[in-house]
């Protein structure tokens, strides 16, 4: 049977041909990458089909041609944006499209919900990321990375990438990430991102893989938060294991958010202090301190900025308690001229320094200010709304004292 030109472009085999392939040895398949821009759904189809095609080189994955199909159980750790670590409308769409393609086309694969119980049943873990790729024109593209990892060994068995046109894709963060006071990105999230781009035959990130059990509880808690079931979400966050793998920014931020939503101010402040302490220990924390356009005044809506004095109080206290020095780095979104944003970001950093010194005078000689303008944008959309709130952040970077 002759394959279509589309099949050849993506390098995938129809399922019948795939199952009929006679495999010998244990050769490691190579990762595949489609670099020309195509519509989003077409890019997802190509990446998924390429991912599955690579498994034809893995004898344990496929049933023998003459026997009944043996399903291989796969769990999907919810997909994220590689630049911000957030779940967004785009990452949720990617996960939906990937799952639909796998379940509708590949009978040998059984997708299981991402839960602790299913980790013991599944053979493979599927991860995926999206990354915005800046373009010369106003239109960007989106890179998709998918990886299939064997849970027993931690080895990546297949990896595929594709590039999609950004045709009105929704980059808005989910409620949890929209409400988060900080950039929720630590070694565990970075490990997820690295694993999704790891070539076949190599081991996935150890920190990430060792935290999978905790990640299932964190995901359940985040799902409840997004559904505005805050009490249940808080209970789930409190159930995250007390092991090192459970000491993640996602958990501490979740405790802060759920307690805030439930009106538990003292518990929320305690949780935020732990967020800051963890940031200090890892040498940086990016805080979403939003200002009125073109000014150093905090955002006028007290529902947004009313908690900022508490945030700054805890940042000052933790910095003094840890006896550290900090660079206070201002950032702006990509709107307006370069010179204007460079000056504005420095002015905002200076204002935050003044507020911290007012809280703890000891910080007067231990903080310096830097303005980065829009040169280190994380999102880079220039939309000046919830989608690029992370670009309008203030970074507290721990540096050696002079």
CATH topology term of the largest domain: Rossmann fold
What is the CATH class designation of the largest domain? Alpha Beta
* C-alpha termini separation: 72 Å
CA radius of gyration is 23 Å
Mean of the pLDDT scores? 86
Main β-sheet description: 7 strands, mixed
Please write the string of helix (H) and strand (E) elements. Answer: HHEHEEHEHEEEHHHHHHHEHHEHEE
Shape: globular
Helix and strand content put the structural class at alpha/beta
> How large a portion of the residues is in β-strands, by DSSP E?
15-25%
The number of E-state strands comes to: 11
Low-confidence stretches: 1-26, 63-67
The amount of helix comes to: 40-55%
Number of helices: 15
Query: What's the CATH architecture name of the largest domain?
Result: 3-Layer(aba) Sandwich
Q: Domain count, please report it.
A: 2
Can you describe what's shown?
- There is one protein chain.
- With 402 residues, this protein is of the alpha/beta class.
- The chain has 2 domains: 5-177, 3-Layer(aba) Sandwich (Rossmann fold), CATH 3.40.50; 283-402, 60s Ribosomal Protein L30, Chain: A (2-Layer Sandwich).
- Helices cover 41% and strands 17% of the residues.
- It is built from 15 helices and 11 strands.
- The protein has helices at residues 5-10, 15-20, 40-54, 89-105, 116-119, 175-179, 187-196, 206-209, 212-226, 230-239, 249-261, 265-281, 302-305, 308-322, 338-359; strands spanning 32-38, 72-76, 80-81, 109-112, 124-133, 141-150, 156-165, 284-287, 325-330, 367-371, 394-399.
- The strands form 2 sheets. Strands 1, 2, 3, 4, 5, 6 and 7 form a 7-stranded mixed beta sheet that branches.
- Strand 9 (325-330), helix 15 and strand 10 form a beta-alpha-beta unit.
- Helix 3 (40-54) packs across helix 4 (89-105).
- The radius of gyration is 23 Å and the shape is globular.
């Amino acid at each position: 049977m002759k394959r279509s030109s589309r099949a050849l472009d993506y390098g995938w085999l129809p399922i019948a041909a795939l199952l009929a392939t006679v495999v010998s040895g244990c050769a490691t398949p190579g990762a595949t990458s489609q670099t020309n821009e195509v519509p989003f759904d077409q890019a997802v189809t190509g990446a998924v089909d390429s991912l599955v095609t690579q498994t034809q080189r893995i004898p344990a994955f496929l049933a023998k041609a003459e026997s009944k199909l043996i399903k291989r159980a796969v769990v999907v750790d919810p997909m994220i944006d590689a630049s911000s670590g957030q779940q967004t409308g785009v990452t949720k769409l990617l996960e939906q499209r990937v799952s639909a393609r796998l379940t509708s086309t590949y009978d040998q694969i059984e997708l299981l919900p991402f839960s602790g119980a299913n980790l013991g049943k599944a053979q493979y873990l599927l991860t995926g990321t999206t990354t915005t790729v800046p373009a010369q024109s106003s239109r960007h593209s989106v890179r998709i990375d998918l990886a299939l990892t064997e849970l027993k060994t931690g080895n990546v068995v297949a990896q595929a990438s594709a590039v999609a046109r950004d045709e009105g894709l929704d980059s808005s963060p989910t409620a949890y990430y929209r409400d988060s006071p900080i950039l929720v990105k630590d070694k565990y999230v970075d490990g997820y991102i690295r694993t999704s781009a790891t070539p076949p035959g190599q081991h996935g990130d150890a920190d990430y893989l060792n935290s999978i059990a905790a990640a299932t509880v964190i995901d359940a808690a985040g799902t409840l938060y997004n559904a505005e079931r805050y009490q249940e979400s808080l209970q789930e966050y409190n159930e995250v294991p007390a092991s090192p793998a459970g000491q993640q920014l996602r958990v501490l931020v979740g405790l802060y958010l759920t307690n805030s939503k439930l009106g538990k101010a003292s518990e929320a402040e305690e949780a935020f202090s732990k967020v800051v302490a963890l940031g200090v220990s890892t040498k940086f924390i990016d805080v979403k301190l939003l200002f009125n356009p073109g000014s150093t005044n905090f955002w006028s809506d007290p529902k947004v900025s009313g908690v900022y004095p508490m945030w700054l109080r805890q940042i000052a206290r933790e910095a003094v308690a840890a006896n550290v020095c900090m660079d206070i780095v201002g950032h702006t979104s990509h709107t307006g001229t370069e010179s204007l944003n460079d000056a504005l970001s420095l002015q905002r950093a200076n204002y935050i320094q003044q507020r911290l010194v007012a809280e703890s005078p000891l910080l007067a000689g231990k903080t310096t200010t830097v303005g980065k303008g829009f040169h280190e944008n994380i999102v880079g959309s220039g939309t000046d709304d919830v989608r690029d709130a992370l670009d309008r952040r203030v970074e507290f970077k721990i540096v050696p004292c002079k």
